[in-house]
Request: fold
Amino acid sequence: MDQSNVRLVKPCRNQLQMRPVDLESLLAADHSARVVWDFVERQDLGPLYAEIKAVGDQPGRPATDPRVLLALWLFATLDGVGSARALDRLCGEHDAYRWICGGVEVNYHTLSDFRVQHVKFLDDLLTRSVAALMMSGGVTLNRVAQDGVRVRASAGSGSFRRRKRLQALMALAEEQVNRLRQELEEDPGATDRRQQAARQRAARERQERITHALREMEHIEAQRRNKDEKGNTRKTPRGDSDKPDRRKAPRASTTDPQARVMKGPDGGFRPSYNAQFSTDTASQIIVGVAVINDGTDWDQLPPMTTQLHQRYGRSPTETLADGGFARLAAVQATSDLGTTVYAPVPAPKNSQHDPHQPRSKDSPAIAEWRIRMGTEKAKIVYRQRAATAECVNAQARNRGLRQFLVRGIEKVRAVLLWYALAHNLMREARPIAALAAA
Reply:
């Protein structure tokens, strides 16, 4: 067919266009970004404003409104965005993020700093928002489910070193710092001053990281000594028992010293953190957040119960946990705090013994726990654990909680608080948004 006479409308991409568009009309009235902004506007951000130094007629560049940064990270967490650079790009490309910014320019450095600098504020915000729900009846705290989820750390497996190697690296780092300092003092014009200062700063930071790794090594060795004193002996390797077992020697990371190698859900061993969430079973609202660098959950019931009491002035009536939390000492301590424990009773070494029958050495609380877990009522109650804790963990995974991009246990805790706040915001948007009116 002859196409010479066919009339077509062809693209012309170098033609200028004027598109008058206001940000307000870009989003639907029920868009989740508006829900996030409504929640943020109702919060008391006084602690964040108190840190701003650009006030009145004093010199200095005006600060970015903390409401914008808070809303951006809450919406980004819901959207599964965990990188400050990715969030920076979205603020210029995506209509929802542009609407939140409202013309305010942000950069990845400001976003990255804000995400981890205000842990206490985020922790208080979680407490205040859940307390408001408790006042309105949205959260009862009668029954909570606790579970741990192991999340891969930012550190790589190759960054872990044993003490001997760390000491050798420390000596090299000190030597490099001293050499660079001496070179700068003897001949300041030998190289560009800015480049020389950058090299010296990098060497100093490396020295600090190795120092932190050595300190963490002392903590690891102390924990192992405590376990050995309690009788938790480790298996000896095959062969000559007098030979040191290099596989069992403690190691620490030079990039994230507080991370620990843990067994993941797929059975592999990777540098990770153990994130702990406590969730109200009736509303599936996260009421408690913690993070540890221990791969087991054995001793985590009492600290979380204590945390909930400190947050809300009362301990939960009942707590549900899986078998990883069912250590006798932990059950006893949690019961002493006034909380009834629902957790599987470990199988006895002798299969002839009934695990739900009290032992002669059991305290009254342990005996009650054994008997309770053998009843049909306890089995029905315990079914709520998976429907609550596993659901919360799965939603966090779906929102990107698969690997931390920050380093250090305090920054990791900040990230977990963002996840908890975002989860609660979507779970009970209206009650949480009414915090200021409550």
Remarks:
- Confidence is low (pLDDT under 50) at residues 233-247, 431-438.
- The CA atoms of residues 64 and 104 lie 7 Å apart.
